[in-house]
Amino acid sequence: MTVDSPPTPPFRDPHLPFAKRIDDLLARLTLDEKISFLHQFTPAVERLGIAAWRTGQEALHGVAWMGPATVFPQAVGLGATWNPELVRRIGEAVSKEARAMRARDDRVGLNVWSPTVNLLRHPLWGRNEEGYAEDPKLTSAIATAYTRGLRGDHPVYWRTAPVLKHWLAHNNETDRATSSASVRPRVLHEYDLRAFRETVEAGAVAGVMPAYNLVNGRPNHVSPYLREQLRTWTDEELLVCSDAGAPSNLVDAEHYFDTHEEATAAALLAGVDSFTDHGTDSSPITARVRGALEQGLLTEADIDTAVRRQLSVRFRLGEFDPHYDPHAGTGEFDTPAHRALAREAAEQAIVLLKNDDGLLPLAPDTRIAVVGLLADECKLDWYSGSLIHRSTPLEGLYERFGAERVEFAEGVDRVRLRTAAGAFLSVPPAEAPDRARAAEGALDPALLSGRTDLPPLTTDATGTEFALADWGEGVLTLRAPDGRYLSVAEDGYLRASADQPGGWVVQETFRLEPHRGGHLLKHLGTGRHVRVAADGVKVADTGDVFEVVTVERGEEAVARAAAEADVVVVVAGNDPHINGRETEDRTTLLLPEHQRRLLDAARAANPRTVLVLVSAYPYAVDTVRLPAALWTAHGGQAAGTALARVLAGDVSPAGRLPQTWYASDADLPDLLDYDVIGSRQTYLYFDGTPLFPFGHGLSYASFGYAGPAARVEADSVLVSCTVTNTGDRTADEVVQLYGRAVEPSATRPRRELLDHRRITLTAGETAAVSFEVPLTALEFWDVRQGGWHLEGGPYELLLGASSADVRLRTTVHLDGPPPAPRRARERGLPGAGFDEQSGAAIVDRTKAAGDAVTPAHGGTAELVYRACDFGAGVSEVSAELAGEGTLELSLDGGPVLAVLTPDTPTAGPYSYTRVTAALVAEGVHDVRLALRGPLRLAHVGFSG
């Protein structure tokens, strides 16, 4: 007798469409099982043979947090390559390593939270290193390439499932969980949404992660744009994963909802499908969902919708079809190809900012002094993996020019710290830190700051000579002679125990505070002061006074080395864990004073000084007396080798700046001012003279441009030119195409990137370069009609080597009507639909949807609405107002014609009342509104 095996359930049938399989699986799950799927850490369903799963694996420029992996340049460095095909190959390598790592460690996830497509609007943003560019077109091109590499090219099964971060208008760490970005409709559609949209429409995105901040007064985790915009851009089921802790923030930090049940329901209904909250403990989230169900705030169908989206990703990743998944056996990890790719990326990311008199490249017999706080560093950031291979600028120059021709001076200050009793802080002898131990799964594998097995600092008669580096704003690190940084562990004792500064809360930074003729040494990680106790040196509420005994100033060592060299290479920049990182914005564009001292000492001793900036963001530096300067982001494992090859001329630099480098802090708007149009931000609108413009980057070769041609064909503009390498070496050129409306009816960008191409040309070679630009790229968001509009008239097309280095110009004429006047009589004026504003903030009309306008600080806001058509005439104006205050209306800058004031303050910010006043007007006029006091304006109507 034979026993028939149970039939294969449809969700296990690889021949059925995913949609039918998901329907079947959903029908088999109990309500409790479906609720459990809503948390980041989804438990197994053993009765159905379904494994546990989790959303989230960081992979910004390599697999992060899971131990050794290939480390590529930071994202802003990948943006500087202006090379989508290179970035696609990097994404492919990262996804292959994720698969290979998962095969031996199931903690490695395949739902990768990357890339970051927030635009680099403001260079003081602490997370500048994570984005690609200040321009939406370049950002979307690079992001699309990376997601395609992460996804893989199989038509059915994805290698990894990328989630874009951080939706939406997120460019500040200061108060990031409670601040609101005021984003007018034009900025929303033309700028912030655009990078997300073009990347999603390309078809390789699995979902998005909302940002911590609010937009127009509403938290991103309940954003109506998830439904109204994101999910209309693709037919794929997109998975929306919350940021860590953000669901709880809706109540705890933002106080947007009164209860967690209400907040969880609102987020789920808005489109959040996976809740990242309370770490691995899913019970708070699942309890909130059950509570929302009991209160009638959710239905089981709402939960099904979210679970379906999650299952869609899991099916696409091949989880349910292990025998059919073409990526299941991927084992490519730290291969020669990946190592070569890391070097290629680091080389292509280097930007030559300045090269007067051809100082670069350096001749093979050049005697080089390499100096600076970053000269012998290969820094990692918060989203890096562990280095398998390491290359510092010093090591790269040793390798390329020979150690005998390279002199090194780090430039740290050498100091001893003496107590009031006359003893000195001393580091007891200890074995070197065990780096291999750090690679066993710690979140930040390079850090050893949590060690308590090493002896704490003590005091003795001679003490230890520490290397003191000031990273700006008085933030110091202190390093023992064996290379270990002073750090504080959980027990409060001070030890020389860290391989590098880092961690979510950095425990390796200090500040010297003047006190009673000496200094208190404040530990910034704990906010406490250093004190000498009988059992060792520790941090306490009250600290000891220390005398800082300087053994040698860093500039003295730099000057000695510089004087003996043919050329000085000063390597300056930032430590990615200090003064500008996630949770911490910068306060200035200036290079830290300590590093300015080193640079001044170097060029005073030797005018043939090259500045190499290795940083996650732009600086305002004095380059007038510098013959040469380069910039690179922290370039990953091959950074030093790549830099040396560029300095030697083995590679001609061709990186281009992905954001404007401003000359001064005075050029910057407020960090929280998101109105790029009104405050003239980024190269699109900036009217000043930048230190270096968007798209800037020099070469060791020269290039000639000729033969511009442009024509309109169907729905596109076809643009072409020829580019010739007129130099004597093979080199890359980045051909950049910009456009601008010549006679716009509304404020438009001064010029806007339409496309670009990075090409390689041998000496004397000529290449034809052509672009096909869709007419939609020349549209703008017409607030008068609430939609996209292609305005007829002349458009200038600019071809060149940067946004400021234009080599060719040509003009095309496009057909299209001018924007029509606002139909004010029929439609009225939406409060947030203004053309110009001063002192206004956009806020939420209701918690679910809609915008209103209010004075930003409760004072006065001025709004202008251009070309409002009142037809044959109106006799009354009405306004939907909340709060208290006064609304004044005038026409064409004339006297106040109507004043509208609620009789009494409304019950709350979402309780609107309709207020009317007499107004006689006809024809077309500009309407000016003045809001005085804490008044919210939702809409203005006209009648009569």
From TrEMBL:
Pfam families: Fn3-like (PF14310), Glyco_hydro_3 (PF00933), Glyco_hydro_3_C (PF01915)
One GO MF term: hydrolase activity
The UniProt record lists the keyword Transferase: no
Family matches, as SMART domains: CBD_IV, Fn3_like
Transmembrane segments: none
Keyword Cytoplasm assigned: no
InterPro entries on file: Actin-crosslinking, BXL, Cellulose-bd_IV, Fn3-like, Galactose-bd-like_sf, GH, Glyco_hydro_3_C, Glyco_hydro_3_C_sf
Residue segments, region Disordered: 812-831
Keywords: Hydrolase, Signal
Domain Cellulose binding type IV residues, every copy: 822-944
Family: Belongs to the glycosyl hydrolase 3 family.
Listed name of the protein: Glycoside hydrolase family 3 C-terminal domain-containing protein
